[in-house]
From TrEMBL:
This is Ubiquitin-like-conjugating enzyme ATG10. Belongs to the ATG10 family. Keywords: Autophagy, Transferase, Ubl conjugation pathway. One of its GO terms (biological process) is autophagy of mitochondrion. One of its GO terms (molecular function) is Atg12 conjugating enzyme activity.
């Protein structure tokens, strides 16, 4: 399997995610579609409390025609509208999980102009997304991809979203957990440092030091 999807499949998947999250009572679980002159993307917003300060998080999912995969864009804001620097964003997760992000993801994250909004957003570069996703067999590629690439940023995805998809997702969830265990190897040793290391530590998803408001 190539690990890529067509734009048609992407639109189908994000439409399904938005539909299945529409009845959620928790705002951090809701995804909505945004129609733009140049295409459609999916967005999620939530407010968390970190160090006694309210932080607004925006996650957007767009499609890369160049790479044939989704792209995760994100910005975190304070109540006064000022945006958090990447170092501050990384600081919103616990120290042990933070070290994994800094060593494996930090150099794959860059700031660029949002393809639809024209403002600066952070994003995880999609150049090797297909390497992570090629072993996934899922009825909703984007949902499985989100469960992997959103984890380091503590993006919340309730298990019931998997249960709402077109067929049983039990195998998909197991696949995602398995693939998540490789994300540090794939994103770290292949993307960034190119040292050829065989390290493959089991990921630890601890409780974060913030809470949703």
């Amino acid at each position: 399997m190539s690990g890529t999807i067509s734009e048609e499949e992407f639109l189908r998947d994000i439409s399904e995610i938005a539909e299945n999250s529409d009845d959620s009572t928790r705002t951090e679980h809701r995804w909505t579609l945004v129609k733009h002159d140049h295409g459609v993307f999916c967005k999620n917003s939530s407010t968390i409390e970190y160090n006694n300060e309210a932080i607004v998080r925006h996650f957007h999912v767009t499609y890369s025609q160049s790479y044939g995969v989704p792209v995760l864009w994100f910005n975190f804001y304070r109540r006064d509208g000022s945006s958090l620097h990447l170092d501050d964003i990384v600081a919103t997760v616990r120290a042990d999980f933070r070290s994994a992000i800094e060593s494996d993801l930090i150099r794959s994250i860059s700031q660029n102009e949002h393809p639809y909004l024209g403002i600066m957003f952070y994003h995880i570069h999609p150049c090797r997304t297909h390497l992570v996703m090629r072993d996934i067999r899922s009825s909703n590629y984007v949902l499985s991809w989100l469960s992997i690439f959103g984890s380091p940023l503590r993006l919340s995805l309730p298990s019931k979203m998997f249960q709402h998809t077109r067929r049983s997702e039990s195998a998909d969830i197991k696949n995602c957990l398995l693939i998540s265990s490789r994300i540090y190897t794939t994103l770290g040793t292949q993307w960034m440092d190119q040292r050829g290391s065989d390290k493959c530590g089991q990921p630890n998803f601890p409780l974060t030091p913030f809470r949703h408001i």
